[in-house]
Amino acid sequence: MRISTNTMYQSGISKINTLQADQVKLQQQISTGRRIASPSDDPVASARALEISHAQGINKKFADTRQTAQLKLNTLESNLTSVTSLLVSTQSSLVGAGNGTLSNLERSFIATDLTNSLQALIGLANTQDSSGNYLYAGFQTSTKPFVANATGATYAGDSNQQLLQIDTQRQMAVNVSGDNVFQTNGNDVFATISNLVTLLNTPITDAASQAAFNAGLATAIGKMQGSVDNVLNVRASIGSKLNEIDGLDISGSDRALQYSKALSDLQDTDYASALSDLAKQQTIMEAAQKSFVQVTSLSLFKFI
pTM of the entire structure? Predict the structure, then answer.
């Protein structure tokens, strides 16, 4: 069998071109830090990397949603802390109002303080977040939830819950409607304070009016305690949710690290291996080039 000179040239050049392509690929992997430049480099690894990247993106979206939920709940908790302080202060005023030595005028002074407390409480109940949305309006976030009236305040919001998907299997309510905070179970804190103002402004002139005052004050103290307890229960629920978010954040961070490692294992260049392969390819290239030169320089005339 005879091998033509053209065939030898084509075979040698083809081999050198292949070696050069391999070298270029290795150099690209080293310079970019990526083992896979296109899906054809490793179809199986590329498909797996696509799946992991998708899961990584979903995990990141949940993390962002949890951050939003945490911000909303922290805003609620901060506001309810102020509400609690105001209600506890009101309770203290009620205890003082029960002092039998107080005159009608002195009780009217307490009534004035409670009127200011009522206005402050309505203001807290109408608090807006950083985006201008009312905290306690349910879905009616652009509507002021409480409107003051002669007997306290009326609720203009709704009882709907704003749900956020904070993890694959977890939706969390990140709002509390105003009726469930301030006007729940027939216990309207605005009406209670308003009634107290009326009670304290009513002069005590005889035993009957004194008895009516005492009974009304006892009822108000009980209702105020119920309102405080309800706010504390709402705060406890918010605290529990914030703790849950912290736990989910830890799990999400762990998953993010796992996804990053898995992607790195699939896509990133093993520098030690790549550099070793590059050195080997360069040696092979040099040998191929020398061999090609020697083979292509063969001639029968050299043996004559």
Answer: 0.76
